[in-house]
Amino acid sequence: MLDLCLKSLLNRRFVAGLTVLSIALSVALILGVERLRTEARAGFANSVSGVDLIVAARGNDVQILMATVFGVGSTGAGISWESYEMVEDMPGIDWTVPLMMGDSHRGYPVIGTSTAYFDRFRHSGGQPLIFEQGHGFDDPAGAVVGADVAQAFDYAVGTEIVNSHGSGSVSFDVHDEAPFTISGVLAATGTAVDRMVIVSLEGFDALHEVPAAIGADPFLREDDSARMPHDEHDEHDEHDEHDEHDEHGHEPGKINAVFAGLTDKSAVLSVQRQLANYRDDALTAVLPNVALLQLWSITGTAETALRLMAGAVALAGVIGMVVMLTAALDARRREFAILRSVGATPRHIFSLIVFEAVLLLLAGIVLGYLVLTVVTIVANPVLASNFGLRVGVGLPTARETLLIALVFCSGLIASAIPAFRVYRMTLADGLSMRL
Amino acid sequence: MTAIILKSLQYRWPDASNLTLDIDSFHLGANEKVMLRGPSGSGKSTLLAALSGIIDVPKASVLVAGIDVGDLPGSDRDRFRVDHLGLIFQVFNLLPWMSAIDNVLLPCRFSKRRLEKVGANPLETAMRLLGELGLTDPELLNGPASALSIGQQQRVAAARALIGSPEIILADEPTSALDEDAKDAFVELLLKECDASGASLMFVSHDSTLEKHFDRTVELNVLNGRGV
Question: ABC transporter domain: which residues (chain B) (predicted)?
Answer without folding.
Answer: 4-226
